[in-house]
Amino acid sequence: MAASGTGLLVIIGAGLSAPSGVATFRRGGRTTPLWQRGPALSVTDWKERPHEVWDFLEGRIAGGGVRVQPLAHRPMARLLARLCTLGGKLTVITQNLDLLLEQAFDEAGLPLGHPQRPKLRHVHGRLGWRCSHCGACGDLGGSSGAPPTRCQACGRGQDRRNAARVHSGIRPDVVLFGEQLPGWFGEIWDAAPTHAACLVAGSSLEVTPVGSLPGLVSASGGAVVVCDEVLPGALQNLAGERCRWLGGDIAASLESLQAAVAGTI
Ligand SMILES: [Zn+2]
What we know:
Elements: E1 8-12, H1 33-37, H2 43-48, H3 50-62, H4 73-86, E2 90-94, H5 100-107, E3 120-122, E4 125-131, E5 137-139, H6 163-166, E6 170-174, H7 185-191, E7 197-201, H8 213-219, E8 223-227, E9 243-246, H9 250-262
Helix pairs in contact: 4-5, 4-9
Bound molecules: zinc ion (ZN).
Zinc ion binds at residues 131, 133-134, 136, 151, 153-154, 156.
């Protein structure tokens, strides 16, 4: 799949985290008051109800008190580690806020900076906090997943129930609906047609502009491989030679893909 040497673009979506019990916006699962109401994590939500945005994010970490296991992320981490050994350009973007793939790499003995751990780019941000003043950021840690009460770099504080004070300090490290994607996404968009192949794992491709990337790879002659229970609607017209769909359980699909890649080494 990545043997041509011109690179592989990997797009990860909520379907990868669904087996772990993390709610997806398309399939439901664990629901929250925010997304039941409509737009979740929007700029308006943050301006008007900052404490509910924090509650939403913390809820996605705490997982109802049960430690969330990176079930499908484990074969994905093994697959990506294998792909790293093939050489060539490997671009991995995730639409997920959770850090479960990072957790799977850590569990596999592949810490940050390891040559078999590719850079994982969170196009919609990550479950973390960011200081509006100094730009410091960090994970939402602890069993509750709560942000720190003060920026660990500049010392600015926050009061999550007081919108004025919240907005003068620590904010979620996520791209809220209504905000711009990170600047580096433009480079990935421009480079998409230069990839030999695109692997889509658990993304419905319904969110733009990420959802258009596989089409850009395919339009320039690249192959598209999809691991998901359902074939995204955006790829229906590519089904066949130019788009290979591995349906069913996503963890099993990734495991078989990993075994196939391992067989090429
Ligand atoms: Zn700060």
